[in-house]
Amino acid sequence: FASACAVLLAGLALLPALLQTLCPYFLQDCIYMLRVARFGVRLEKYKRRTPLYSILDCFLDSVRRHPLKPFIHFEGKTYSYSDVDRESNKVANALRAVVGLKEGDTVAMFLGNEPCFAWTWLGLAKLGCAAALLNFNIRSKSLLHCFSCCGARVLVAAEELRGAVEEILPALKEKGIRVYLLSDECSTDGIKSISQAIKQASDEPLSPSFRANLHLKSTALYIYTSGTTGLPKAALITQERMWAASFIQGVSGVTADDVFYINLPLYHSAGFLIGLTGCMERGNSVILRRKFSASQFWDDCRKYNVTVMQYIGETMRYLCNTPKKDNDKDHKVRIAIGNGVRADVWNEFLKRFGNIYVRELYAATEGNIGFINYTSKVGVVGRVNILHRNLFPYALIKFDIEKEEPVRNADGLCVQAAQGETGLLVGKITKKSPFVGYAGNEQQTEKKRLRDVFVKGDLYFNSGDLLKVDHENFVYFQDRVGDTFRWKGENVATTEVSDILIMVDCIEEANVYGVTVKGHEGRIGMAAITLTEGKEFDCVDTCKVLSNLLPVYARPYFIRIQNSLEMTGTFKLKKVKLVAEGFDPALIQDPLYFLDLAQKKYIPLTQDIYNSVLAGEIKL
C-alpha cells in the first residue's frame, strides 16, 4: 500500500510537468474560460433584473463605494468618482431644463478627448438618451451624413469645433437640428452656448424614473465606422453590447487597482467601450490624453503609475521608433490591450520595454464574433476553445478573392476552410450573438448578412475578414477582403507585402494595394511609401529585398513616394483614393517608380514607360 501511494504521489508530482509538455496552454485556457464564464453569468443576471442595471448604474455603485477615488487624471487635474458624478448631474439637469431632453432622444456628441466627454455621456445616460459619438475629424458631407444615420435632433459640440459646425449650420437648421456649444458665449446665429447653464445647474442626483423604460436591447450608442470605403456607417450599440465590451478589461486580467491609460479617440469603440466604460465596470482610474504622443507616452506612464495601456494600429511601432533610453523598462505597465500589431513589432516591443502581457484583440464594432489572445503567443489574435465556440458559434469558410464572394458547392452552400487554410470569418447570428446592424442603412446591414451558409435558411454575420487557425488552435488575422488582390492567378495579402517593404532600410511606412492594368486580369501590386528621415529611395536595395522574400507575383510593380500616408482616426491606412488614382504619372505629382526585372531595380516611371505598359509592350 505504501509503495502504491508513493507511486501515486510521484505521478501527481509529475502531472504539472506532463501537462506543460503535452498541453502547454492548458492553465491559460482554464483561466480564460473561467473568466468568460463568470462574466457570462453576470450578464445573464443583468438580463433578468428590472429595472435595467446598466453601465451607468455600475458607475454609480462605484461612486457610492469610493467617492474620493480618482477617476480621471487629465492635463494636471484630477477628477474623483464623485466629481464626475456631480458634473454629469449638472449636465443632465441643464439639458433637461434648457433643451427639454427626455428618455429615448438621441443626441450627437461632437467632442474631443477631455473629461467633459465622460460626464456629458453620463448626463445623457441619466436622462435615458442615446448618444451618437461623432468623429471630431470629419467635416462637411460626412458630418451631415452622420446625423441622417442616427436621427439625432440635438448636437452638443466642443468650442474648438465651432468652425466645423458653422460649415454645415444651414443644413442643420434646415433639418431642424438644435446646436449647443460647450462655451460661455456664442454670437453665431443658430448656435446656443450652454456652459453657463451647466455651471448654474443643480448637481443633485436625477431620479432613475427618467430612464425607467430602458432595457438591455435599448440603443445606448451609435459608433461610426472609419468610412475607409465610403461615408461612415453608424453601428448600433445596445445596452447589452456595452456590457459585453466593458468586460474585455476583466477578461484580460484588469482589476479595480489598475491605472488605465487612454490615448485613443473616445468616439471609437476601443477608446470608449473597452477603455472608458471598461474602467467604469472595473471601478479603476483613467489617465486621459487628448491624443497619442509617442514621445510623452512612457513619461506619462511613470508619472501616473500606469499599469494598463491601450494600443491600436501602428502605435506600438511608433513607440519602438522613439530614441532608446536607459529607463525604457522603468515603468509599471503589465498589460497592453489592443489590435493590429505586427509580430515583428510585437517582439521588438517586448524586448525593449519588458515583459508586458499583450492582449491582442480581433473584433469589429458592429460584429457578433471576436477573439482575444489570452496567451503569451506572439502574433495571434486568439485561440479556439470549447466555451468560446459554444457561446459564439463561428466558422472560417472558403472565399474567392477574385469574385469577392464565398465559395459555394453544388448545393449552394458554403465550404468550411481546412485547418491551416485562410478563410472568411462568419459568426452565426443568434439571440446570444446578434447582429443589430447599421442605423439608417438597411442596405449596408443586409450586405453583412450571409444566408444559407451550411444549411438552407441559416444566417451568419459576414466579417469581411480573412483569418486562419493553425494546428495548435491559434487564430491568426490574415487580411481584410478588400485588402487582398489577385494577380497572375495568385492571391496577394497586402499586409504581408507591407511587412516586407518596411524591412528595406530606406522605407519608413508602406501602404500596399492592387491597381488595374488595361489588358490584364486581376490587379497588380502597387505601394505608397514614406522614406526614413534623411534617406533617399534605394532603387537597387528595395528590389533586392523584395526579390529575396517575395514571389514575383507579389512584388509591387509600382511605387509611389509620399510625404505621409493618409490614415483614419484609428490609424488604418486609407487605400480607396490611391487605388482610384492608379499609376499615371500625368495625374500624380508624387515620384513614381517602376520595377524593371531585367535591370533588377526600380526605375523612374516616365510617361513613355506608362504608355508602353498600357500598350502591352512591356511584359508584366
From TrEMBL:
Domain AMP-dependent synthetase/ligase: 61-373
A Gene Ontology term for the protein's cellular component: plasma membrane
Signal sequence bounds: 1-21
Record-linked CDD domains: hsFATP2a_ACSVL_like (cd05938)
Catalytic activity: a long-chain fatty acid + ATP + CoA = a long-chain fatty acyl-CoA + AMP + diphosphate; tetracosanoate + ATP + CoA = tetracosanoyl-CoA + AMP + diphosphate; a very long-chain fatty acid + ATP + CoA = a very long-chain fatty acyl-CoA + AMP + diphosphate
InterPro entries linked to this entry: AMP-bd_C_sf, AMP-binding_CS, AMP-dep_synth/lig_dom, ANL_N_sf
The keyword Lipid metabolism appears for this protein: yes
Swiss-Prot/TrEMBL GO biological process terms: long-chain fatty acid import into cell
NCBIfam families per record: PRK08279.1 (NF006134)
UniProt family annotation: Belongs to the ATP-dependent AMP-binding enzyme family.
Identification of the protein by name: long-chain-fatty-acid--CoA ligase
